[in-house]
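We close this part of the discussion by returning to an individual protein. Part of our work consisted of pairing the sequence of a single chain with a tokenised description of its backbone. What the numbers capture is local backbone geometry rather than side-chain detail. The amino acid sequence and the backbone structure tokens for this protein are reproduced below.
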Amino acid sequence: MAEESGFTYALISDHYHPWTDKQGSSPFVWAILGAIATATRRLRVGTGVTCPIMRTHPAIIAHASATMGCLMPGRFFLGVGSGESLNEHILGQAWPPPDVRQDMLEEAVTIVRLLHEGEEKSYYGKFFQVQDARVYNVPEAPVPIYLAAAGQQAAKLAARAGDGLICSAPSAESVAAFDAGGGAGKPRYGQLTVCWAKTEEEGVRTAHELWPNAGLSGQFKNELPRPAYLEQACRMVTPEMIKKEIVCGPDPELHLEGLAAFVRAGFDHVYVHQVGPDQEGFMHFYQREILPNAGAIAA
């Protein structure tokens, strides 16, 4: 449906848990990606984002992403990040502090790139070991690896180790740090969260019910291990707070302004996260009202 509506790329989350129980769904991303590969012909798709440092070893991510690169030649990219306790604590390992997670992520990206060369490799690093591993099915063109960043240090890592940047907010500071770290000229992807609905009030109500975590700011939400804890934190989130964080309703100008905020911050790609069950209504709205006018924003 996205492909038919005119979207040219998409990102898919890699979660073990949803943020809250009411979101209600969190399937295994690599199985869904295989299904997407059979249902599309033009759409570029990437993970937004995979954490390759705890729940899944980077050698396994190298294997999975190389296979997807073969299933979707030239159409798959791997988005990676340092993760949230929500998904990564499940194996009982200690949850590292942010600086350590960034170091682990850099080492994980090194391993993925190494194994994507398609030869037998061994690696003995500070955090990970790989012994006599070979990924036999690798695509002809390397799979691009984009790194998620929510701050300047992470953006510098994305510039140094990645082929592009992913952010969930229109942060000009992150883009500037990315450029200064060597990322100039590489793609920058930003996530705009919206809730299309027939009225703004309905959109706010749906978003407040299903995506209250948008109203939580700060690092702490990445440190909470259970959806139940996120739900407790979200009790302080009001509909007014959601209205400030999520574009709600059917006004094209609000959606276009949401996209424009990312363009002004220096992003050259924006992917739109629709909250709520009416995906078909959202697709038709963007096909009719937004995509034909999006080019004027970038001009």
